[in-house]
Amino acid sequence: MRLSWTTKYLLLAALVLGLAVIYFPLLVVLLNSFNADTTFGWPPSSFTLEWWGRAAENEGALNALGTSVQAGLAATAIALVLGTMAAFALQKYRFFGRNQVSLLIILPIALPGIVTGIALNNAFRTILGIDLGLFTAIVAHATFCIVVVFNNVVARLRRMGGNLEEASMDLGADGLTTFRLVTFPMLRSALLAGGLLAFALSFDEIIVTTFTLGTGLETLPIWILNNLFRPNQAPIVNVVAAVLILASTVPVYLAQRLSGDTTSGGRL
Amino acid sequence: MTTTLDSPRRKASAFLYRKPRLRLGILLSAPMLWLGLAYLGALAALFVTAFWSTDVFTGQVVTEWSLNNFVTLFSDAVYRTITLRTVGIAALVTVVTAIIAFPMAFYMAKFASPRARRLLVIAVMTPLWASYLVKAYAWRTMLSGNGVLHWLLNPFGLDTPGYGVLATVITLSYLWLPYMILPIYAGLERLPNSLVDASGDLGARPFRTFRSVVLPVTFPAVVAGSIFTFSLSLGDYIAVKIVGGTSQMLGNVVYDNIGAANNLPFAATVATVPVVIMLAYLAAVRRTGALDNL
């Protein structure tokens, strides 16, 4: 495209500035986790590793980490099964109500989190009479993680078409054998990427979790929120926040390496 | 291959192959039970609850139909102010993100090399997955009285805006920016370069080309991005708690009515407001084709 050099450089400047604004606050949190000053005066006058050591021994934070991992793994497992089934149904068949079904899959993440949160809270407690606990949070997380797996699998199915599966059937393989030897190997990296991103989404979620996790339990984001306004906990909150920033980039990076099927990792 | 032509598995496979409807039914059953029955059921129950009330003395939900909650919501000046403030913040956040995202997406889609483009998409996307709470918290430290913004702006005679509506707009814009960049980037990628060149050949200056060629073609993508920024802002309450000072949004009213006030029916009533606004917005933008850009 021919545009004047001035325009081009102005646009480049906007991009660089935009990315700087995106990453700068995250870097500040990382730096502050080493800031020796407990009120985080800026610029930091001296650095320390003390907060990282204290955080590693903080029982509340460690318990919260455990809860986060359990909820994430269970929700990811459910989302993988349901998301893949839905992806096959919508990608391979044309049927009445197909658009409505795909809207329904996006709905839990498209509606404001607080609506999903209180709807599920109300359903568990008032309608079904189930006490909130880890189980209810897992059900809630699985509900909004389905879309991530679904989007990744749909993108892969769209790209691979159906020729190889038909060839396999023509050569005498039955449905199960075709799935085991042809379809699944081609889907594997998309499933892994979808699973990683679903786990990341569950790990980071806070609003729906607030309304569906039982009292006395905390995930890492809820632990942060509960300790955010306690001044003596501030340095440890900073370390946990820094850990979350670093931890969340790993699955995104891995997922992008495994499958570049969707621009946003299938979150949108 | 150990299976023979008449093995049970083979027969089942052949039977299913002849019955695509049955295969579809099996595939859809579990996801539809989960989402269609459980999730939609929960949503429906919530909206029914909006017409019920809470007994002032026992705190129990009274299952009698009434419009009282809606009357309170519309007649009370406090809720009107909060609704207007919430919609205003959501609209402002949408405009701010669109203005910041467009040039960024334009450079990514039109000037970056294919390799750089892939890296830039990852660079924009990664913070999208970084914890919502951590990002809101990051802005709390940035905006605080002895924080980075104070240190950066002080030499110019300016200061950090502190915690309030402006801080909320900044934080929400920051949080949702990737949701705006990615759809616009995808839209611009589909815009043929030749259209822009043709406009230039016909004598249009860059701004005229932008207004008459680029914007009309990419408008659906901008609207697609706005669906996320607008909807997510309407329902937010945690960012407001962290950087908003005393100015509440609709989400805070919902949250407080569930927690402290223990009035689930009224919380449900307030929660219908963002949902109705979003449905109206979606209906309004349907014709732009934005929904196909999601």
What report would you give on this structure?
The complex is a heterodimer of chains A (268) and B (294). By secondary structure, chain A is an all-alpha fold. Chain A is built from eleven helices and no strands. Chain A has helices at 5-32, 50-56, 59-92, 98-110, 113-127, 134-160, 163-170, 175-204, 207-212, 220-227, 234-258. In chain A, α4 packs across α6 (134-160). In chain A, 50% of the residues are buried. By secondary structure, chain B is an all-alpha fold. In chain B, 74% of the residues lie in helices and 1% in strands. Chain B has helices spanning 8-18, 20-49, 68-75, 77-110, 114-129, 132-143, 148-153, 165-190, 193-201, 206-234, 238-243, 250-258, 264-285; strands spanning 53-54, 61-62. Chain B has a two-stranded antiparallel sheet. In chain B, α6 (132-143) packs across α8. The two termini of chain B are 44 Å apart. Chains A and B meet through α1, α3, α4, α5 and α6 of A and α1, α2, α4, α5 and α6 of B.
